[in-house]
Design brief:
It is rod-shaped, with a radius of gyration of 29 Å. 22% of the residues lie in helices and 31% in strands. The protein is α+β, with helices and mostly antiparallel strands. Strands 1-6-5 form a three-stranded antiparallel beta sheet.
């Protein structure tokens, strides 16, 4: 029988959700570096377009430089909610004062192994067995994870705003000159 305390199971599931959000954020940060060169200058695109500058002759063109980052969609994702369903058989109510048996040997843990001992919960807790609940599918779990787009952080919004302000015409010329 593979049983664990309900508290430990919930803590492990919450930790998995937290780790998933952390990985989403790390991926998004790694993607940000795609918009900067090796010297941390913003990558930009130069566009040729008919000139609308004062005093420009017909046929003159402007070279317009625009940093790429403010031009692309920067969807920031975050976990909106998580739904986890599983079947489990409830075990007995364990008094908080009783030491947890070692899973492999069934003997209480020896506090002399390692210099830190995990603190025991101050309240009684319930053991659960997730291997029995789903008859033919031991440990079957149904997980629904919803993500949503959110607004960029203040720092990212300020950076994109500053980069957008640096875009513009940097040269007017007549093609063929």
């Amino acid at each position: 029988m593979a049983s664990t305390s309900l508290n430990d199971l919930i803590e492990a599931l919450a930790g998995a959700v937290t780790d998933a959000q952390d990985r989403i954020e790390q991926h998004q940060m790694a993607h940000l570096s795609d918009f900067f060169d090796e010297d941390n200058r913003p990558k930009s695109v130069v566009i040729r377009m008919p000139s609308i500058q004062h005093g420009a002759d017909e046929g003159d063109e402007d070279l317009y430089r625009a940093p790429i980052l403010p031009l692309v969609s920067t969807n920031v994702l975050r976990i909106k909610d998580v739904e986890i369903r599983f079947d489990a058989d409830l075990g007995s109510l364990i008094d908080a004062g009783e030491p947890l048996p070692d899973e492999a040997s069934g003997t209480p843990p020896d506090p002399s192994h390692g210099w830190r001992v995990k603190q025991r919960p101050s309240k009684p807790y319930v053991r659960v067995d997730t291997s029995l609940g789903a008859k033919d599918k031991a440990g079957a779990v149904h997980v629904v994870l919803r993500v949503e787009g959110s607004e960029p952080t203040d720092g990212a919004a300020r950076l994109m705003n500053h980069l957008a302000q640096t875009q513009g015409v940097f040269k007017t010329f007549k093609p063929g000159d």
